[in-house]
Amino acid sequence: MDTLTLHTADGQKLAARCFTPPSGEVRRVVVIATALGVPQMFYWDHARWLARQGCAVITFDWRGMGLSAPKVLRGYQADLLDWAERDAPAAVDEAVRRFPGVPVSWFGHSMGGILFGAIPPHPAIDRAVTIAAGHGHRDWLARPLRYYVGLLWHVAMPWSIRRHGYFAGRRLGAVGDMPAGVALQWRRWALHPDFVVSHSQAVRQAYAQVRTPMTVVMLTDDTLATNDGVRRHHAHYAQAPQTHVRLRPRDHGVRRVGHFDFFRASCGKPLWPQALTWLTGKAT
């Protein structure tokens, strides 16, 4: 595992790691984009496994998150479109610089997948996989979350930002700490029935113009994103070829996966070979 620093076009430095195959032969590069509030280290077991299968893997923390966060979040300026339009290209550019000519797959978990349509197109990305990347409006959230998420949007989040100058999610047991701009943009999108594409006509058009083949993975026991919500969000990719996969944990001898556990080592043997198929388009 190599420690990297990604440099964005607007001068930000992002903490990243690169995992390479023991053989040194790289057949594909996978960029893992993390869920909201989840540090990149959560994905390292999966990254190591992919590296043993012949993939180079780059993980990184979005600006304001994890190892890319400043010592003090109060007053730090960042939002979700900064992640998509500036941070994501820095990760893909690093993948291309390190492994020229090798195809790249985007592997986005939750918010890391939700934002794919807002990322500037890059010719090196020939496949995208999103997992648990669902619509954030309450009508499309899983039960019982949809019944109390209003407390987050209208009470806990505004109060936390006013008091701390950022969303202190760890103190509330709700995702992680994040810059105020990230939290408030997430809130604005989630309160609109069109979610992300409500931001602007330009963002709506960006999603509609994506042509990258996508594998859209839905988890039948997801505790946050419903399968219908995943389909609802991905309907905005009007021109992208999509393969939808409904993953039922018990079909693979796994008791539960939920929104996060696919990336835990406990799911490795029964589930991770499928990820290699999604990311490469080739059966294991």
Q: Give the amount of beta strand, in percent.
A: 15-25%
Count of runs of 4 or more consecutive helical residues: 9
Large-scale geometry: globular
- Please give the CATH architecture: 3-Layer(aba) Sandwich
The helix/strand class is: alpha/beta
CATH superfamily label: Alpha/Beta hydrolase fold, catalytic domain
Strand order of the largest sheet: 1-2-4-3-5-6-9-10
Cα radius of gyration in angstroms? 18 Å
Q: What is the CA–CA distance across the termini?
A: 24 Å
Structure description:
- About 35% of the residues lie in helices and about 20% in strands.
- The protein has helices spanning about 45-50, 80-100, 110-115, 145-165, 170, 180-190, 200-210, 225-235, 270-280; strands spanning about 1-5, 15-20, 30-35, 55-60, 105-110, 125-130, 165, 180, 215-220, 240-245.
- α4 packs antiparallel against α6.
- It has a single domain (about 1-280), classed as Alpha/Beta hydrolase fold, catalytic domain (Rossmann fold, 3-Layer(aba) Sandwich), CATH 3.40.50.1820.
- The chain is globular, with a radius of gyration of 18 Å.
- It is of the alpha/beta class.
- Strands 1-2-4-3-5-6-9-10 form an eight-stranded mixed sheet, with helices on both faces. Strands 7-8 form a two-stranded antiparallel sheet.
